[in-house]
Design goal:
The protein is an all-alpha fold. It folds into two domains: 11-196 and 206-390, MFS general substrate transporter like domains (Growth Hormone, Chain: A), CATH 1.20.1250.20; 396-483, Response regulator (Rossmann fold), CATH 3.40.50.2300. It has helices spanning 3-18, 33-44, 49-52, 64-81, 88-108, 113-139, 143-166, 173-190, 210-230, 238-260, 266-283, 291-299, 303-321, 324-351, 356-373, 375-383, 397-406, 416-426, 431-438, 442-456, 461-468, 475-483; strands at 58-59, 62-63. The protein has a two-stranded antiparallel sheet with strand order 1-2. α4 runs antiparallel to α14 (324-351) and α18 (416-426) crosses α20 (442-456).
């Protein structure tokens, strides 16, 4: 690699390391709790299969865990492909009912090939639930809600691991826990309302741009490298799941600290995830029962950083650059690739188990190296792009609706043009796009923005978002003033 290229990558890494996000717990809208919970509930299933399905029953030469995991991914893609924006709430209701029925049938049937087939049908419908939930997660929630939702995925899974390993409840805990999760999933889906999706923008010009490609790379990579661990010897023993659960809970606390207190960029989580996973697999070259193998199982708890970072980043970027149609296409592709992520290590574990740590270490290292080499692209198209202020503010959909109803901008001393530009800013538009829509120069737009910030006593767009999303700002009071 040329010396100039190395310097560019190093400069980008240092720049990304110093980058920050800005989330505020006050931005959580409790009426959206059903959309925050549903997303964590359904995907947890994908991480519980080793404790739920017996390897003694096979179909077409594959074990239950591999078949059900693949069915979950394929079902999510195929079912979601049939949905439309106008019908997503109705389809969510139907999937909730189907999931409940097939789940009950799976629970009451004894282990057999028929039972495994029913489990696959259940996984297909639950995958559809997760797909619909993922759409709500991306397009309905704001950044803070999205991050908390992603953290809940990890928390639910870590708590399940810890309780399962400690055997606090009886040996059937996993199915009891899954019953609670499925029940919650179905209830949340049945509470979906069509009007909550009415604010989703139909970005007809959405394409798979560099920002989306980079985000999808990490999402697929994190899932692919993580799946290998499930097939490693001893990964589902009592000691292993306790270690994973304990570390996982601490890691979730670390993630929340990074985001809400130190304001560190999500990019740092991505790197910590890769480093931890590579170290985990490397330590699996040591002998079973050694201290290093035990340490590996604790370090693996850092997998939670990967889940949180992947889901949060995907949601933020897709809401900005994607639309419903593009989201469906990408989701189908991602889920099909994720289905292969189960099959590949599953085949290796059957025919060459001793090679699994080597393949896992090599694969993880390779995707991490590619991730690092793409640092300049992540800096340019994501974290320091001209739209990256979106990472530093809440989603303004609800506030903009209040803004239109209240006429609050009329009381702030802004000119008609400044009001217009303020609304564009709060919608997440960049200066270039504002200039194009208003048929004025970027210089004029920036001049108006400077005056807006001065009049509203804010320094940047993040503070502008915070000002208009603050609970101290009463829309109803201004509405009454306007009407009087």
């Amino acid at each position: 690699m040329p010396e100039q290229g190395k310097k560019k990558i190093l400069a980008s890494i240092l720049e990304l390391f110093r980058s920050k996000d800005c989330l505020n717990i006050r931005n959580v809208r409790f009426q959206h709790l059903k959309y925050m919970l549903i997303f964590p509930l359904a995907p947890v299933f994908a991480n519980m299969q080793e404790a739920l399905f017996s390897n003694s029953v096979h179909l077409i030469g594959l074990d239950g865990m591999t078949l059900v995991g693949s069915a979950y991914c394929v079902g999510a893609g195929l079912l979601f492909a049939l949905t439309k924006l106008k019908t997503i709430s109705n389809i969510s209701h139907l999937l909730a009912i189907t999931t409940a029925i097939t789940f009950v049938l799976w629970l009451i049937m004894p282990d057999s090939q028929l039972n495994l087939f029913v489990a696959m049908l259940f996984a297909v419908s639950l995958g559809g639930c997760a797909a619909c939930a993922s759409f709500a997660y991306v397009f309905v929630l704001n950044n803070t809600e999205r991050f908390i939702g992603a953290a809940l995925i990890s928390l639910f899974f870590a708590l399940n691991q810890l309780d399962f390993g400690l055997s606090i409840v009886s040996g059937i805990f996993s199915k009891i826990y899954l019953t609670a999760l499925v029940t919650g999933t179905c209830i949340c889906l049945l509470l979906y309302k069509a009007r909550d999706f009415s604010d989703v923008k139909d970005n007809s010009k959405a394409t798979l741009n560099p920002a989306l490609k980079l985000t999808l790379y990490f999402f697929i990579a994190h899932y692919f490298v993580e799946t290998f661990y499930t097939y490693l010897p001893g990964s589902s023993t009592q000691a292993a799941v306790i270690a994973n659960g304990m570390t996982g809970i601490l890691v979730i606390i670390l993630a929340i600290t990074l985001q809400f207190i130190t304001k560190r960029s999500i990019w740092n989580m991505c790197n910590l995830f890769f480093i931890a996973i590579i170290l985990t697999y490397a330590l699996y070259f040591t002998q079973e029962g050694s201290a290093f193998r035990s340490v590996a199982r604790f370090i693996h708890g850092f997998e939670q950083l990967g889940y949180i970072a992947a889901y949060y980043l995907l949601g933020c970027v897709f809401k900005k650059h994607g639309n419903f149609r593009l989201f469906k296409r990408c989701l189908i592709i991602v889920l099909l690739i994720n289905a292969m992520a189960y099959v590949i290590p599953g085949i290796i574990s059957v025919h060459a188990l001793n090679l699994l740590p080597l393949v896992a270490t090599f694969t993880s290292s390779l995707v991490f190296i590619i991730f690092i080499l793409m640092s300049p692209a992540y800096s340019k198209y994501l974290f320091f792009a001209d739209w990256s202020d979106d990472f530093n503010c809440s989603d303004m959909t609800e506030s903009l609706r209040n803004l239109e109803r209240s006429g609050i901008l009329g009381n702030l001393g802004l000119s008609p043009r400044e009001k217009e530009i303020t609304v564009f800013l709060l919608s997440g538009e960049i200066s270039k796009h504002i200039a194009e829509k208003l048929f004025i120069s970027i210089h004029t737009v920036n001049f108006h923005i400077k005056n807006i910030y001065k009049k509203l006593n804010v320094r940047n767009r993040a503070e502008l978002f915070a000002k208009f999303n603050s609970p101290d700002l009463s829309f109803s009071d201004h509405k009454e003033d306007k009407e009087s």
